[in-house]
Amino acid sequence: MLVKSGAFAIEQSSEAMPATASPSKLPDELPQNTLLLCAEQLSGSYDSGYGGFGSAPKFPRPVENQLMLYWSKKMEHTGKFQEANEALKMVLFSLQCLARGGIHEHVGCGFHRYSVDKFRHVPHFEKMLYDQGQIASLYLSSFSITTDVFYS
């Protein structure tokens, strides 16, 4: 059964890819309209009260924050400073809430997997190694943009 479903997934993926697509012909960057759609959807799910995107359970979701940092830089380079600033503020506030919340383990360091409540108070007590690396990278990126030692 597993082999059959794997073959089906490959077949579906092949059909979804354009015939001209090959690893050497794929664009170096996300198409602007794809990036815009992602940024708009994330902005629409932004939690301005407790940071992050979406509601409880509250996962750190560093990939989404990295996309918003990327979007911010793209908007800055095109002269859309207000949009760039709004995206950056979303990420920075989310990181502040994450660092001050219950999933940040203040004694042993690192971050628990997620918070079971929207307030980021009650952690789910497990840590994932890949989360630690992605979250550290996100804080480092934010520090390099702001030079604010909070993010270092």
Automatic annotation (TrEMBL):
One of its GO terms (biological process) is carbohydrate metabolic process. It comes from the Eukaryota. InterPro entries: 6-hairpin_glycosidase_sf (IPR008928), Ssp411 (IPR024705). GO terms for cellular component: chloroplast. This is Uncharacterized protein. The lineage of its organism: Eukaryota, Viridiplantae, Streptophyta, Embryophyta, Tracheophyta.
